[in-house]
């Protein structure tokens, strides 16, 4: 019932917006698009666009019918603009794009470059800029949009909500909006990343109602590591830990969980509450360097080992080990960007440009090469604020 209410609110907002617009259309004349997938047709070389459309009649209905609450349509064309007009041969109403939640690029198209497709999206006045842009890992965008979800009527809305929630509590996630992507593409000294999504399970059965009737759906969509770009072309993927390290570096972590191993067995789980990362650059004799200064505050969330938390030395050791673990995450992310991706996705060059504009004029011409040899140091500070409602670990109490 809640999911129906949420989608009805979205439809209601659409009606309000349309009523105040000079080119207003009756809601009955429109089809509300919540998701768009863009692939390259392997046979014709044309763009293949998949749109996910909600069915207002089914959302508002008080009685359950056999019809789904969302429908996907697909067609091809030489340009995205042409494709959107060609949809009129398949759908009975004009498509309305202002409530799109996601635009997903297929992996193969992303490797070719997404710049040409972004022209249509940024030029079209119906698109807002608050939707997320994703890349389908190991597959096509259409496959992601075709997977039905058990918790939301619209798979696009489900993915959008998942990114929003995960970004707040789980560090490897970051939602990227259109304006952020465009700003990064035109900036000096920084290449973009986009959220990755992949289909897990049986893709062929993921779009069937029977999949939702099982306790374990045949297929699900999962937010995965970041898609890393050089300019507008996909050059590789970050793992979950590399994505977490990336977010630590760019100061994009609101809350997360840190884990460090015990000396014997088990782990210590830390509830990271506050993170602040600053980048300090220096250019000496034409050679740039950067210091990553990170301050972290956390609470103890779980301890699976025998420790006496009443001792200051024990807490101090946990803090030191946790700081090393975070630094290791950042180092692995940087190594991946330098050696494999050869792409400054962190914006180190952009920071040098801002802090040393004169020096940047000499560095920017060969920055992609200079980045690979950039000297990077770390200044870590980790503080445990609270240990919870018991002073010692439960393992120690039960012995």
Automatic annotation (TrEMBL):
Topology term for the membrane: Lipid-anchor
Major place of residence: membrane
Subcellular location as annotated: Membrane
Protein name: Spore germination protein B3
Family: Belongs to the GerABKC lipoprotein family.
One BP term from GO: spore germination
GO cellular component: membrane
Sorted UniProt keywords: Germination, Lipoprotein, Membrane, Palmitate, Signal
NCBIfam families the record matches: spore_ger_x_C
Keyword Membrane: yes
Coiled coil regions, renumbered to chain: none
Spore germination GerAC-like C-terminal domain: residues covered: 224-388
Annotated Spore germination protein N-terminal domain residues: 24-198
């Amino acid at each position: 019932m809640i999911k129906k209410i949420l989608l009805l609110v979205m439809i209601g907002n659409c009606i309000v917006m349309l009523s105040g617009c000079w080119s207003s259309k009756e809601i009955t004349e429109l089809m509300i698009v919540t998701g768009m997938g863009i692939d390259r047709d392997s046979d014709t070389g044309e763009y293949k666009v998949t749109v996910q459309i909600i069915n207002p009649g089914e959302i508002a209905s008080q009685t359950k019918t056999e019809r789904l609450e969302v429908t996907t349509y697909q067609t091809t064309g030489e340009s995205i603009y042409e494709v959107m007009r060609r949809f009129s041969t398949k759908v009975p109403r004009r498509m309305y794009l202002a409530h799109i939640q996601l635009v997903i690029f297929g992996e193969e198209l992303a490797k070719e470059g997404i710049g040409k497709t972004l022209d249509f999206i940024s030029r079209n006045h119906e698109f807002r800029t608050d939707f997320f842009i994703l890349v389908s890992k190991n597959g096509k965008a259409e496959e992601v949009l075709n997977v039905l979800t058990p918790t939301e009527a619209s798979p696009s809305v489900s993915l959008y909500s998942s990114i929003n929630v995960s970004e707040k509590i789980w560090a490897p996630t970051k939602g990227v909006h259109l304006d952020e992507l465009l700003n990064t593409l035109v900036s000096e000294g920084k290449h973009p990343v986009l959220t990755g999504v992949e289909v897990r399970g049986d893709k062929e059965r993921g779009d069937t109602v029977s999949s939702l009737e099982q306790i374990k759906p045949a297929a699900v969509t999962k937010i995965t590591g970041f898609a890393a770009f050089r300019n507008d072309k996909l050059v590789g993927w970050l793992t979950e830990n590399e994505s977490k390290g990336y977010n630590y570096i760019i100061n994009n972590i609101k809350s997360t969980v840190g884990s460090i191993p015990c000396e014997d067995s088990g782990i210590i789980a830390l509830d990271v509450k506050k993170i602040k990362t600053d980048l300090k650059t220096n250019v000496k004799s034409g050679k740039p360097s950067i210091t990553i200064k990170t301050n972290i505050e956390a609470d103890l969330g779980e301890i699976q080992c025998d420790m006496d938390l009443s001792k200051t030395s024990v807490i101090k050791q946990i803090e030191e080990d946790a700081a090393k673990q975070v630094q290791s995450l950042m180092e692995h992310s940087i190594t991946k960007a330098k050696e494999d991706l050869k792409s400054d996705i962190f914006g180190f060059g952009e920071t040098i440009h801002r802090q040393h504009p004169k020096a940047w004029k000499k560095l920017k011409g060969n920055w992609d090469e200079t980045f690979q040899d950039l000297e990077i140091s770390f200044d870590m500070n980790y503080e445990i604020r609270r240990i919870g409602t018991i002073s010692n670990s439960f393992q120690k109490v039960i012995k």
